[in-house]
Amino acid sequence: MSTQTKDTTGYLDMELLRFSTAGSVDDGKSTLIGRLLYDSKSIFEDQLQAVKDASKRLGGGDEVNLALLTDGLRAEREQGITIDVAYRYFATPKRKFIIADTPGHIEYTRNMVTGASTADVAIILIDARNGIIEQSKRHSYVASLLQIPNVVVAVNKMDLVDFSEDVFNTIKAEYEEIAKILKLKNVIFIPISARDGDNVVDASTKTPWYKGETLLHLLETLPVRMDETKLPARFPVQYVIRPHSDEFHDYRGYAGRISGGSFKVGDEVTVLPSKTQSKIIAIDEGKNSLQEAFAPQSVSIRLADNVDISRGDFIVKTNEHAPTVSANVSLLVCWLNHRPLNEGGKYIIRHATDETRAIIKDVHYKVNINTLENILDDKTVKMNDIAHISIKTLKPLKYDSYGENRISGSLVIIDENTFETVGAGMIVHNLEDETFTI
Amino acid sequence: MDYKLTHLKELESESIFILREVAAQFEKPALLFSGGKDSIVMAYLAYKAFYPAAIPFPFVHIDTGHNFEETITYRDDLVKLLGANLIVGSVEESIAQGRVVEEKGFNASRNKLQTVTLLDTLEKHKFDAALGGARRDEEKARAKERFFSHRDEFGQWDPKNQRPELWNIFNGKKQLGEHFRVFPISNWTEMDVWQYILQENIPLPSLYYTHEREVFERDGIIYAALPEMPRRESEPIEVKRVRCRTIGDITCTGLTLSTAESLEDIIGEIASSRITERGGRSDDKRSEAAMEDRKKAGYF
Known about the structure:
The structure holds two protein chains of two kinds. Chain A contains eight helices and 23 strands.
């Protein structure tokens, strides 16, 4: 009983880390995830039995194909491919992990962007036999574009190159050049064999020359979004809570999720776009009242004055750097739909909790994400293309650049007729000043 | 101040955000309440999300007519406690109206039939979003489900044509006749749910705790010996100490041998368990892609 009690308390202290995995076909991504789930004992007996049965049926003999643990849909099992972003979960006593598992084929840049949008860490898999290929560059570009704070380069299939230090070092040196061009922030290299488990959970005896950490240990210790709470405070109003009851007759709470920084009771605040000023008198979380709340908490804020605030407005701290309020927005867009972007066309824009319409003013250029060169002569933005565009919105947005804040700096573009989400936009102020490379 | 959130607080914050998005983006949402622990957690999250205002959408329960008595009592008490409205869709009624035909034989279940009752109920009340307590870790077809899952006018799910979901921007726009299924606790695991129930001190139906019950065994799964569950002569009744790990209707809920009397006991039991909670669900065992097929047809 005593060990159970200890487990329970430990569990209440755990943090959450989100990471994405991207890899090319056959470089062992599914096997790596299967290995992490298996070695962290997140696989249950009935799941394992199902995989053992399937491995046998597919002619794999008695060897368990860990990749089958992550194949979700029947179509994928039949074709041996991954169609869409899949989410996986496992936990160690230190952390709970959410994996956004994205397929690596060229046509699936959109899935990589989706998976990377919430990730704290990107794991990029490189097959030790093939070294860095075009797809590795594409994955790295997406990590840079989505500004994932940590990139782990897992050089896989080391068993097939005799755990050669030279092979590992050559790949590392070559990748460091790319990381420099892409301005990737924190890049860590690990030699692994996902199939046999070397340096995944336990340190390998076959890589005595490698002094770094195992992949799992790294994932347990990398910082989790520490910077988010240090940003200027942003509170996109999501919903106005008005009980209309006798007990809470005058109650008016502005509900939302803090998307940067922190707020305290007593803070002087400004509401945007109206620029009305007021003061925080209470921060509520259900029945509890808090003195201070920070990103990414969902709370509801009460103000001293009866001001007119509705969904889509921003509450910010008066003494901090304010977001830009403007109808002209410059952004890098990843196109997600089969129908190309229509220059001059009108779309619906969703930004934080705000919604408006916009016209696409200009397509400045596209980016060839394999060569990282700008394409100026072809401005048709098709599915999986990345482009620098300008839009003009019907009502002004309150925004930061994506480099400053991943929530107030991002938006999605929605087709006016089909209502599909067709574009993912990362706002830029001035491209030359940004951490982006293009 | 130490700006650190535990993973439970972060999951809670994400779920509350989703619940508020639903209230803001849809005209007539509803919360699908099954009586199981996941929908109970979702109900409490909804209460927290809108407090001190009332939950701005009704609870919908699809009653197969094969529910445990405890589920119905718990449901009625909870609705009162949280001040929510309850709408019940009845599978018996769908059968009586000839909308569905009851399965026959010893493995007959109304699990599949309830999809029709569910879609009929959504249509009758013109609900445009149905909140469900499904989690991505439950089953592999669910690992690819979105938070906001778009359904066509036949209530069907097209896994190859899902809307991309980026950052925390959720697109609930739809054509006339279409609706959404929304899953606020997508990112929770079974363990997270139990830990949250413990942390928030949420009362649960007694079925989740160990109790003595008349049971019988079929294909390695223990079922409750109740009139709703047809039993072969070769399947003798025994009395055992059991509890439910998930609660569905009587015909598809497998029971676990257990001595767990408290939440702490249950958590300890799950931490050392080597079988998934759906391992005891006979509805998933029908084929390797059973869940995928049911989801495409409009299942929860």
